[in-house]
Amino acid sequence: MEKEKVYVYSAEYAALHNQTELYNESMKRNAACARAIENAFSRRPDKPRDIPGMTKTILNRYGSVRVSWVCANTVQITNDGRYSKNNAEWASRFKIPDGKDRIGMVINLHPAMLDNFIYFTRKEMAMREILAIENCEPNNENEKPADETEEQNGGMNMNQ
User: Fold this and answer.
1) Residue 159 CB neighbour total at 10 angstroms
2) Is residue 136 part of a domain?
3) What DSSP line would sit under 38-50, residue for residue?
4) Over the stretch 123-145, which tens digit does the pLDDT of each residue have?
5) Helix (H, G, I), strand (E, B), or coil: what is residue 156?
6) What pLDDT was estimated at residue 151?
7) Spatial contact of 119 and 84, defined as CB atoms under 8 Å apart
8) Which of 1, 67, 94, 103 is most buried, taking the most CB atoms under 10 A from its CB?
9) Is residue 159 part of a domain?
10) Position 89 pLDDT exceeds 50
């Protein structure tokens, strides 16, 4: 389930199209998402971090689009070569409009920590996508479930 939509246009565009309220609300949620990621890392600094668990919690709260947007924004602004090549390339695909408000949604973490968080975030999003696909209903009404097909073939699964 995706959370509320991320406003992907600039402040100038929002002003021209009477969408300033949408823009401001989205920026507030983006900043809150960034702070939540920071806070997840700052809790109990003496204990090992469960980054996969933190990732799931943040994704459940803010949605994959917003978490991706905020992470990509941070990598784009702060990339000094310490992010993995895969994560830097992934972040570069996001077309985040320039503007002074981008700084408010930067995640203030050491690049190695954020790089690890992004890795697990992308991995979790891929797993969720796979699970969503696996749980889809067949598109074709004439498609029969595997157990019906086996019965018609004398109990043998012909797809093995």
Assistant:
1) 8
2) yes
3) HHHHHS-TTS---
4) 999 999 888 787 776 555 555 55
5) coil
6) 46
7) yes
8) 67
9) no
10) yes
Does residue 148 fall inside a structural domain? yes
Residue 107 vs residues 53, 104, 132, 147, 159: alpha-carbon distances, Å? 18, 9, 29, 50, 49
As for how many domains the chain has, the answer is 1
DSSP category for residue 100: G
Q: Which two tokens stand for residue 43?
A: 């809790």
How far CA 12 is from CA of 34, 64, 69, 104, in Å, comes to 23, 26, 19, 17
Sign of CA dihedral 38, 32, 51, 81: negative
- Taking residues 52-56, report their average pLDDT: 92
Instruction: Return all residues near 58 (Cβ < 8 A) that are at least 6 apart.
Output: 33, 36, 37, 40, 67, 121
**Rounded to an integer, what distance in angstroms lies between the CA atom of residue 70 and that of residue 107?**
8
Which residues, including other chains, have CB under 8 Å from residue 5's CB and lie 6 or more apart? 26, 65
Predicted TM-score (pTM) of the model is 0.79
Q: Which residue type sits at 67?
A: V
Whether 2 is covered by a domain: the verdict is no
